[in-house]
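Protein Record: Sequence and Backbone Structure Tokens
======================================================
Tokens: labelled as protein backbone structure tokens, with as many entries as the chain has residues.
Task: work out the structure tokens from the sequence, keeping to the layout shown below.
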Amino acid sequence: MTTSQSNDPRTPPTTAGHAPVPEYGTPPPAVSACDVVTVPARQGLEAVDILRRGTGEAVGPVLHHDGGDTLGFLVPPGTAAAWDVPGSTCTRTDGRGLTLLPEPPLEGSDWLLPPGDADLATDPAVLRAALGEAARTIEAADNCR
């Protein structure tokens, strides 16, 4: 990868091919590849709560999309090959132009947990456990009605 630097001290260095993000002054981090686990919003929101109050278990960036009906958790590449959690899907993106900008990478989506406020990706095993706990919590709440 080539980097270039201006001789003008007021211009921050940039990575070739990427414009600096004005509020950060440096190029956005590129995601060479990631997978996205998509779940219904209710279960996903419960899982985010579980992950955020967990003991040291971090949650990566999370997208809220499809009119608010689903959440998408960024997970490490290769997760889709073994993902088998009922009620969810895991899609391989192969890094198709994804960058972690403040703006969401998908039209019609918004960041629930934006990059920078979260780790790079959610650990799939931790996410699997949180989604299972979320499903049980929702089922128990629904049975109390």
Notes: The beta strands are 3-4, 14-15, 35-40, 62-65, 70-75, 89-92, 110-113. The longest strand covers residues 35-40.
